[in-house]
Automatic annotation (TrEMBL):
It comes from the Eukaryota. InterPro entries: ARM-type_fold, SSU_processome_comp_20. It comes from Timema cristinae. This is Uncharacterized protein. One of its GO terms (cellular component) is small-subunit processome.
């Protein structure tokens, strides 16, 4: 196992070079890597020679997916990788490899129906994980998914999930949600942001008043400032009109 693991570690470097021999043999290389995963990548594996072999294989598959542009994995292989990644994002010993693999898949804009469900679980993990670095990795992966994939009406659903998590009971989870929303606001194309601005403004405005943690209220204020700073004047005026309606409400003024 140790010799095979060393060979695979060397292969991860060789694959980054666009060599004629690699192009000629990439299909058989890919098939052999997936055969190793099929044989040894079992749930719960966390130590020993088998574990080192599996981790090395996942790393070289990540290189294969991300860097070998002359080769595209099959739909069945992609489904297999997503299944492994879905399991491993909940395994502390294999999370880093799983997130790297997901980033590689997203960078190639590969699509299968299972992708959406895996990304939903990544979004949940970005809020619920007890580990800050895991929440950060999950945010990065999910943000890449939002930016690189044509989601259409599903975008509103994904934003709605994050808006709903502003009420999450634990402060680190709410802070992670606010980090994600701030990133969305500062990176989304302006037409898309403009379309979603009313939802963002109203939900964030409510948390500015209702969140019990001063740190979260400060983050909400910074996020609202970023939102208003990016929007065109006419959209800002419409949002200010909403504020005026709130202030004129009898329940607010009495």
């Amino acid at each position: 196992f140790q010799l095979v693991t060393l060979c695979i570690q060397c292969l991860s470097w060789v694959l980054k070079m666009d060599l004629p021999s690699i192009r000629a043999n990439i299909d058989s290389i890919s098939s052999s890597l997936f055969a190793l995963l099929h044989k040894y990548a079992v749930a719960g594996l966390s130590k020993g020679d088998n574990f080192s072999l599996v981790v090395a294989t996942f790393k070289v598959v990540t290189v294969l997916v991300r860097d070998v542009k002359s080769h595209t994995i099959s739909e069945d292989q992609l489904k297999t990788l997503l299944l492994y990644a879905e399991q491993d994002i909940h395994d502390h010993s294999r999370q880093a490899t799983a997130f790297s693999l997901l980033k590689a898949i997203l960078s190639r804009k590969l699509v299968v129906p299972e992708m959406g469900e895996v990304m939903n679980k990544v979004a949940v993990l970005s809020v619920t994980s007890e580990l800050g670095h895991v929440r950060m990795q999950a945010r990065q992966v999910f943000h890449q998914f939002l930016m690189d994939y044509p989601l259409g009406k599903k975008l509103t659903k994904h934003l709605g999930f994050h808006m709903s998590q502003l009420n999450y009971e634990l402060k680190p989870g709410r802070e992670s949600v606010l980090e994600m929303i701030h990133t969305i606001i500062t990176t989304f194309p302006l037409p898309v942001l403009d379309e979603q601005s009313e939802l963002l403004f109203m939900m964030l405005g409510a948390r500015l008043v209702n969140d019990e943690a001063p740190e979260c209220r400060k983050m909400v204020a910074q996020t609202l400032k970023a939102l208003l700073g990016r929007l065109p004047n006419n959209t800002r005026d419409q949002l200010f009109d909403i504020v005026m309606l709130w202030l004129q409400d009898s329940k607010v003024t009495t």
